[in-house]
Design goal:
By secondary structure, the protein is an alpha/beta fold. It is built from nine helices and nine strands. It folds into two domains: about 5-160, Glycogen Phosphorylase B (Rossmann fold); about 175-250, no CATH class.
Amino acid sequence: MPRILHIIPTLDRAGAEKQLLVLARGLARAEFDVHVAALTRGGPLLAEFRAAGVPVTVIGKRLQADPVAFARLVRHIRRLRPDVVHTWLFAAGSYGRAAARAAGVKQLVAGEYCVDRWKSTLQWAIDRRLARYTTHFVTNSAGVRDDCAEHGLPEEKFAVIPNGVEPARPSNLPRGALLRELNCPREARLIGVVGRLWPEKRVKDLIWAADLLRVLHNNLRLLVIGDGRERAILERFEHELAALARCARHGVAAVPGSA
């Protein structure tokens, strides 16, 4: 049975972590021996991995450059002897690929799942060096692949695999009851977005676009489901747009944020 080790920074409720959970469940059902190593700490998803029968090891990296954690990860990989190591995101990708190579693993897969505007020149240099030993790169969009290629990663090694979505669970809540709970009209058309409320998700742009669309479709309603550091900013922005709409209906000019 092929053994796969996935290495990821944490098991928080975020996009890459949830995608790993979906993949690990599917691989385990397909008779792969799947293991997960959380580089720094566990998180809310730890129990769900274990409930799916996927063993999880927390490495316990504490410092940005942590030689003790690196040695611990190398020992773990040597003990596990995986056929493939698949890393997720930059921290796990840098530590994980270097440790896997030191442990003698030949098949290294690196996951790149977002456009990382925050990466420094040094971090891109690390990525380019590790790319020499990386068998394949996996990404969820052509945009991420192109951005990585612009920074010197080998485009020919990339495979674009869109994010997976598990089938929706049956709901016992009728549509009418949901609309009443959300205080929406019976004829409302719902658009939903689920994710972290962080700047790179551009939820503010979506709120603005939905407000523009309501000029044509007054029954449109946008549901934002999630949490994050931008929540208060987004709530304030939505209130300003609502105030602007009320002013427009009464013939008063206003600019959001001018109060």
